[in-house]
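Let's practice the habit of predicting before peeking. Look at the sequence and jot down your guess about where helices and strands might fall. Then scroll down.
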Amino acid sequence: MADLRRFFGGALAAALLVAAPAAAKPVTDYTGLYVFGDSLVDAGNARAAARAFDVFLPGIGDPAPAERGYYRGRFSNGHTYADLLSLEATGRPSARVFPYGYPLPFFGQIRFGRPDGNALNFAYGGAQAIRGDERVPAFKAQVDAYRSLPGGADPDALYLVTFGGNDLFQAVNDGYSPEETSGYLGRVADRIADQIGRLEAMGARHILVTGAPDVGLVPRYAGSPPELREAASRASLELDLLMRAALGGLTAGGFAADLDYFSFLEFGASLGGLGLDFDTPCLSVVAPGPDGRVDCAGFAFFDELHPTAEVHALIYERMRALLIGDEAPRLASAEVPEPVPFALIGGGLVVLGLTRRRAAS
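Done guessing? Here is the structure:
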């Protein structure tokens, strides 16, 4: 796996479009934070939904049990980077919205329990950009829930979008061929761009998007054949490039929002020098203390899929630097080979990291 991490340290063999930098903006200047995504940023929606539906469908179980060290419905041992951004912007961690906006078969969206405040989190663990077999709201349904709130989007708030991990797991775990993977991930990238376009059309003017995570690094694959982990990392890189291309097309004209792009691939590669254990889930060897918290110092992952609170804090610091403008503006889009040849990765592809795009206004 050390070799896989080094794949992301060379030079990007694709055409890059340099964009003018967006105006730097301290996190405290945002009037709120609205979160859309999956388990990386879920503030307890999936846990609340599982508890509610377990009454009717016993056996669903708690996906983030506190007795095992999961923190208040988060899929980690503490606050996520979404919570930390929210704490700085609003003074509060992001708040779950369930049951509001949850889509029910034959009944449509649940409209009771309308959430208030400026730190609302619509993310659900298990969510995909394109809905698969999961029961939780995908990206479009999360945006639908936000849209159903009274009033338009706050133009001075920050909108955080994190999708792609579960879509990648679907392609890898279901054994998609390279051609099937490319076609599917292209649709995923287009869906992400489409829904970001919807947020912009509602009035959102500050949008932070996270790129594809390298799912080949998760401990769930630690005992898998090397070719499976390589396929997972290859698919992650391909989705990242496809997302950049889709977002570059979205912002090419008539897009009124500032769009910031945070590369999980570069961030993951940067962790290599910290001596973290990538293959062992903290939860498998460290028990919760008397206060219910788990000390995961030295571990990259809390469980088989999700980062520790310590890694979330590092992500937050890098995101904060991006938003403030401490990171140099670069890239907006890249031409993507179809499919991405893995030989190019091994030969020294660079995955660009923290990037900023000032949309045409």
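How did you do? DSSP finds eleven helices and nine strands in the chain.
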